[in-house]
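It is worth pausing here to work through a concrete case rather than discussing structure prediction in the abstract. The textbook approach is simple: state the sequence, then state the predicted structure, then interpret. We follow exactly that order.
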Amino acid sequence: MIEVAILRPTIAQVNPFVWVYLAVVVLAMLIFWLFFVRVFGLWLRAFLARAPISVPQLVGMILRKVDAKEIVRLKIMAVQSGVDIPTQELERAYLTGADVERAVLAMVRAKETGKPVTWDDVIRADRDERLDEALPSESRDQSS
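Step two, the predicted structure:
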């Protein structure tokens, strides 16, 4: 019987571009996996708390450098307190620099006391308060 030798290349004989390609693919898969785990974890947390936040909204928050974990936490707090604040409004307030946690707590407190307050009123009050703190007292005296 004739034996046929099968030539298999050793690791040293494989084209170096294959290793580069393999490294890039593994790195891309790792980055995708980490991103997926982060987004899926936030989505699952919101889903289980019955606070509707979609995956595209979470991805958008991450791309816009919004603290998605904080927005999810505050959305859950609002939903569990019976306050309906759209996710986009929470994100908008965060991007404008408002104290979103304080605003959500104010909405919850207003609901508990029965005061008719809107989200825009709370955010406007927060902005005005921060503006008053930022202005020197002399310029406030002149405008009065």
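Step three, interpretation. The chain has one domain: 16-134. The helical segments are 16-48, 55-63, 68-80, 87-95, 100-113, 119-134, 137-143.
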